[in-house]
Amino acid sequence: MMGRQRINRIAAALALLISVLTPSFGQEVRTGAPVPPAHRRLHARGADFIVGQQADGGSWESSAGVSGICIMALLASGEDPNHGKYADSIRRGLRSLIAQQSRSSGQIGSGMYEHGFAMLCLADCFGAVDERLFEDKDLELERSIGDALRLAVRCAVTSQKQNPFKAWRYSPSSSDADSSVTGGILMGLLGARNAGVPVPDESIESALGYLETMTSESGTVSYSGTGGYGDSLARSSIVALCRSVAKRPLADDALRSYVISRSVESTRSAHPCYSRYYVSQALFQLDHAAWRAWSAKNTNDLILRQGEDGRIVIAASFQGPAYQTAMLLLSGALEYTLLPVYER
């Protein structure tokens, strides 16, 4: 008798579990596809090259922005950031970022471009990397990732409030703005909010409003000013990404159509690393099938371009090899879908 009751209880528990895991009618369930071995090799070799390019002080290319990008590339494949093969490099990089942050203003690096990528990096690391970053000898520099992220958010919000456009440009005290820097800072703020750090709704809405004024009816996005929209796939991708992550639907929007239809041009951009970085993320948010097709071509192209030492360099005169390799690895990092802010 007791055996029958136990069997019934187990059957009921299984039925409940199945009902929870089974999608309701009309719901779409998307399961992750295994990351192809060739892509894993591409990323592993590139990450090893990035580690080898790190300076003794923990930074890359003497830039807080590049350092943030390199740290995110090391996080992207899912290696344990506290005990995995890149743990020491990640921790030294974070210490370098925090050491560069102004204790008074909260600014990280030499300008707001760098600040945006550094802030996004801190957001991705918050809650994933052990907060105990500093040794006893470095206690005068000590600040937790959470404290540094909150201070970085404060810097961005303060800068925006005093800006006539309620957006950002190169300096926190700039009186003008552009869509590229604004998109970078906004993604950092959205990452911070996603990590649980308070970000004023007004700041998000004002930034989105500025980007909307820069977007034409055809989906092109102006760099700065109030006219002459120009034609930049990277800028349109930045705006599409920000709107998607901020939960602003783009179902039948011209911006969505522009990014999807022109995405193949990212490989021919004047700034190919920057363009691929944003196009990949925008497509992932806008159309999974379009992203999948683009990503397969992107991966194949990067494999062909990767050097014997793991570096991936496309434009010899644009930034350094650590920056280019990290940005290009991040353009393929959605194969892993692990960096929190890029989740759909």
List strands and helices in order, with pairings.
Elements: H1 2-21, H2 37-52, H3 64-75, H4 87-100, H5 112-125, H6 145-161, H7 179-194, H8 201-213, H9 233-245, H10 254-262, H11 272-286, H12 288-305, H13 321-331
Walkthrough of the structure:
- The protein has 344 residues and is an all-alpha fold.
- It has a single domain, classed as Glycosyltransferase (Alpha/alpha barrel).
- It contains 13 helices and no strands.
- The N terminus is likely disordered.
Instruction: List low-pLDDT spans.
Output: 1-32
Give the biggest beta sheet: none
Task: List the quaternary state of the chains.
Answer: single chain
Give the overall form.
globular
Quickly give the CATH architecture: Alpha/alpha barrel
Q: Could you state the order of secondary-structure elements as H and E?
A: HHHHHHHHHHHHH
Q: Label the structural class.
A: mainly alpha
The number of distinct helices, counting runs of at least 4 residues, comes to: 13
Strand content: under 5%
CATH level-1 class: Mainly Alpha
Give the overall pLDDT as a whole number.
87
Radius of gyration using CA atoms only: 21 Å
Rounded to the nearest angstrom, the distance between the terminal CA atoms is: 49 Å
> Tally of extended strands?
0
